UniProtKB/TrEMBL annotation:
PANTHER family: NUDIX HYDROLASE DOMAIN-CONTAINING PROTEIN, UDP/ADP-SUGAR PYROPHOSPHATASE. Gene3D superfamilies: Nucleoside Triphosphate Pyrophosphohydrolase (3.90.79.10). SUPFAM superfamilies: Nudix. One of its GO terms (biological process) is nucleoside phosphate metabolic process. Keywords: Hydrolase. One of its GO terms (molecular function) is hydrolase activity. This is NUDIX hydrolase. GO terms for cellular component: cytosol. The keyword Hydrolase applies. It comes from the Bacteria. Its cofactor is Mg(2+). Residues 44-178 form the Nudix hydrolase domain.
Amino acid sequence: MTAHKKFEEITLRTEPIFKGKIISLQVDHVQLPNGETATREIVKHPGAVAVIPLLDDKMIVVEQYRKPLEKSQVEIPAGKLDAGEEPLQAALRELEEETGYRSEHVKHVSSFYTSPGFADEIIHLYVAEQLIKGEARPDEDEFLECEAITLEEAQQYIRDGRISDAKTIMAVYAWQLYRLTGQI
């Protein structure tokens, strides 16, 4: 028996609870590996992209208010995948919408799950270099400010709690590694 099958939970029944514009919530009734049953509350998400935009040894970030946290956060540009959209195309779109920058030098860094204990959201992380300035076009309900910060400023923002989301912290560490090794 393979390791992933050893711990598999078999879905017996799914109860849809909520369907919104971005997420949906369901309760799955599952059979556990020992034959017992349990429930799992699951947030379904279409997936997202995030971009590490590098320009002149600085990283372009955006600051915006995050209602669930009741505070502003400094983050790398990011957004959800539209239906049928390829992650690379979404990354290019989000980069330009939020920062005004475009790039033809974009490389996939990693894809990771944000909270696998209760959500299926996956973020595809890219690095963009040789940026070309254009004009930002944020969504009508997006209010943000763009800034170019040094690695040292990013590290200080993490210590101060201005950067506290996982994708941006991961981006800062990936950027630090890139500066040290030349590889990301």
